[in-house]
Structures are given as C-alpha cells and as structure tokens.
TrEMBL record:
Pfam annotation, one family: PRISE
Native source species: Calocera viscosa (strain TUFC12733)
Record's protein name: PRISE-like Rossmann-fold domain-containing protein
InterPro entries (UniProt xref): NAD(P)-bd_dom_sf, PRISE-like_Rossmann-fold
Domain PRISE-like Rossmann-fold: 192-362
Length: 480
C-alpha cells in the first residue's frame, strides 16, 4: 500500500493514555560534583585465576553459580511488569536454587503467572513516599532482602510529539523520585540489601541527540555529564550513589542498548511493532515490506540487548563480588544492522524487500526531521534524519487499524498492544537515526563475564514467542 506523507509528524509521540504528574521543583536534578563521580573504580576484590562457564540454550559463556555462597538468596524487583523486570523474574524462576524468595513491585498486578515463592506488591512508587513503601513491604511480610533490582520508569506527557525524551528535567524529577521512594522504602521497612542494581541505558551518552563516539566505553558517561543538561539517568545515578555512600550498600549500574524481548502491554518494545508491521502488511495483501529510513540508517551498525541475556548478565552483576560499585554495558556481544535484518524480516513473512533509494532519487518523497538540540560532544550540530514514512503514522491510518482488528479477530490474537502507541515511535527512532551505536564490553570481560548471544537467534526466539503469546498469527496461517 502507499504510505501517506505526514503533515505534522507524530514521530516519537508519547502515549496519551497515561498522564504523568509534573513536579515544580528540580529536586532530583542536582548532580554530585563531577570529581566525586564513582566511575572507573578498580574492582574491590581479587579476581579468580579461572572462570567456569556454561550454556543455556542460545545463551553461551554464562557464569557458574554452583558454589554454596550463591544459594537461597532473597531479592526484590521494582518495575516488574516492564520488559526488563519481567525477564528478570523469568530468569529468577528458572534458577530457584539461587533465588529462594522473590518480591516484586509494579503499578499493576502481575501479567504472568509466578511461582509460589514469588510475592507481588501492586504499588505506585511515584504516589507513595518512602514511609508508605516501607509500610506496604512490612504488610507483605518482607523480613529480608539480599539484593534489589530497579527497572521502574515513568514517562512524561510530552508537549512536543517529535521526541520521546525532550522533557529532560521533568523526566529527571519524576524518575529520580521513583528510585528515591523505593530505596527509602526499603530502609523504612528495616531492609538493607547487600547490593542494588539500577538499569539505565545509552541516553546517558546522548545517543538520542545525535552521533556519539563509538565504541562507547562506560567512562564516557563522565564526559557526557559535563556536556548535557538534566537527564533522568543522571538523577537516578545520583540518588543511588548518595544512598550507597550513606548506608554502606553496594551498587551496580546496567546500561543496555535497544532491547529485544516481548511482554504484553508494554511500551518499551522494539521488535513487537516490526513484527506487527510485517504481519499486518501481509494480512492486507501486500507483497513488499518498505523500509522507512535512508541508506545511512540501513547500513548503520548497532548493538542489541536481548532481554533474557540482559537478565542473565545482571544476575552476574548483582552476585559477582568483583562487580560491586561498577557500571556495565549490557549487550549481546553481537552486531546488528537493518541491512541484514530487514531482508530476513521480509523473507520470514513472505514479503519482498529492497535497500532504500538514493538520497537524490527524484521519484522518492524524502522527508526529514531535525533533532531538537545540538548533538553529542564530538558532533556539535543538529542531526537530521531522513525517512519516507514513519510507522507511528502508518499504524494510525484507518485502513491499517481496521486490518489489524480484522487480523486479530480472524486469528484470535491478543489486542493489548493496540493501545501502545509509544512502541511505534521507538521503532521509528531506532530505524531512522543514521549513527552507529556500539558498546564496548571489555570491562565486563576483564572482570569475568563472558556471556553472549547471537542477536538474530534471540530475534528468532522472540518471533516464536510472539506467536505463542498470540500477538501475531502462527506462520502456518499467514506465511505462504
């Protein structure tokens, strides 16, 4: 089908279903002195001479946890319904010898069945202060927490539809408060974990503004913090570091790239909109699968972070003695490009694909958007990205919505993701930016983590999961 041009781009539109509160005071945007940032610290314990590793399915080089010191742990996971929190719970459920008792916190009740040793708490960490969180934990009967994982995130209601993260200061206030309430709630309940894991990401390097130096190393964060204004990752880092220093609690920070995985009713999905785009196109009788971006975006190199591997990696980050008080890139150790992925996606759904046309092709209606501020440290310009259409616009076209509904009715699919507009904008961003995003993993390897997964094998498993979860039709019904 033809894709209509956008008169006013809905690129990276925020979901309108959730109105996040706004804070007047910049309580959580005051950063620690740059000279005091706990970055690049040497490991606090001697490293072993040898490491034992194993495989779990497509995931290889994983640590060995057979030692008694890693048994019968108790953990709490905040943000348990999101893609990262949900996968961490899945990994914990698969390793009951490590995780004897697991508590989870989320704004909504759990969406997946949990083992008997898992206990959930439905709680809004924004609207509940530390005393309230502590009271709820005591009411749940929580008496011990060895390790805490924090994945919770609350978006703003964007005033400008062209960016996911333009309201940097408001995001910093809101998400700094989420973490602060959680940590203070643990203390209020008389709980002091050995280590707290915070998941952040690559926006702390400014990759959502434009090109950044690659491969990125963890200590590049200190350069970025000198250059950029408020960023909610910086606010969360400050909250965690202050808590850690004051209460003698170890910390670890995990920084994934674009995440491959699938949970229902979650906006932070990259693969789900791509699979739905192909499935709906096929259902509408299409024979081709157009790529929205230009040749530069087609050829860029990226690291992907498979959600299950992230959780396995983070299990090492929280348990390994040498990982204490460190920040780690958390990625597959594989390389991804749209040039390699897009033909595979088309072939999987029986659709033809082709590389993007040349920039000067007069038959193509190229459009563009400019980033809302100057790009990163080594590229002092406003980055401009080109596209022929945006999937966030395409999915709102009446015939597309009708086809999605018809496909769901015909194949009895789950329609929860029809409410999630935000994920289409994430896909648009990941596709149309033209700069590389490659994360250096040497730090983790030097400290003894050797886990890896082929990103394309992870994608294939996630496609099957999408079928099993009735998000897309089974291939037997759709692929000819």
């Amino acid at each position: 089908m033809a894709h209509s041009p956008t008169s006013e781009s809905t690129f990276l539109a925020m979901a309108t279903k959730h109105q996040a509160p706004s804070l007047a005071a910049s309580t959580y945007t005051i950063h620690a002195p740059l000279d005091d940032l706990p970055l690049g610290l040497p490991p606090s314990v001697p490293l072993p001479d040898t490491f034992t590793v194993h495989s779990e399915g497509i995931f290889h080089g994983l640590p060995d946890w057979s030692s008694p010191e890693y048994k019968d742990k108790t953990a709490i996971v905040a943000g348990a319904n999101g893609i990262s929190g949900a996968y961490m719970l899945r990994v914990m459920a698969d390793h009951p010898e490590i995780w004897k008792t697991v508590y989870s916190i989320s704004r909504r009740p759990p969406q997946e069945a949990l083992p008997a040793n898992f206990h959930s708490l439905t709680l809004d960490l924004f609207d509940t202060d530390g005393a309230g969180v502590g009271k709820a934990l005591r009411a749940l009967g929580v008496e011990r927490i060895d390790y805490a994982f924090f994945y919770a995130f609350m978006p703003t209601q964007a005033s400008d539809k062209r960016t996911l993260f333009k309201e940097d200061e408001e995001l910093a206030n809101i998400n700094g408060k989420l973490l602060d309430n959680f940590l203070e709630g643990l203390l209020a309940a008389g709980l002091r974990p050995t280590r707290v894991l915070l998941q952040t990401g690559c926006k702390g390097y400014g990759q959502h503004y434009g090109p950044i130096i690659t491969p990125v190393v963890e200590d590049d964060r200190s350069r970025a913090r000198k250059f950029f204004e408020a960023n909610f990752y910086y606010s969360q880092e400050d909250v965690l570091w202050k808590f850690s220093k004051k209460h003698d609690v170890q910390w670890v920070e995990s920084r994934p790239s674009f995440i491959i995985g699938l949970v229902k009713d979650n906006n932070l999905n990259l693969l789900a909109p791509l699979l739905l785009y192909a499935a709906i196109t096929k259902h509408m009788g299409g024979t081709e699968l157009p790529f929205p971006g230009d040749r530069r975006s087609w050829d860029k190199l990226m690291d992907m972070s498979s959600a299950r591997h992230n959780a396995l990696f983070q299990q090492w980050q929280i348990l390994a003695p040498q990982a204490a008080n460190q920040a780690f890139h958390t990625a597959d150790g594989s390389i991804f490009s749209w040039h390699r992925f897009w033909p595979w996606l088309g072939e999987t759904f029986g659709l033809k694909t082709a590389p993007p046309a040349a920039d000067d092709d007069p038959t193509v209606n190229w459009q563009s958007y400019e980033m809302y501020r100057d790009a990163a440290i080594d590229y002092p310009h406003r980055a401009v990205c080109k596209y022929t259409f945006l999937m966030a616009d395409w999915v709102q076209e009446p015939e597309v919505r009708e086809a999605w509904k018809d496909m769901a009715d015909k194949y009895k699919l789950d329609t929860t993701l029809m409410k999630q507009d935000y994920m289409w904008s994430i896909a648009d961003f990941a596709i149309t930016i033209w700069w590389n995003l490659q994360l250096n993993l040497d730090k983790a390897r030097k400290l003894g983590y050797f886990g890896t997964v082929d990103s394309f094998e992870s994608i294939e498993e996630t496609v099957q999961l999408a079928v099993d979860m009735a998000i897309i039709p089974s291939f037997a019904n759709t692929i000819t």
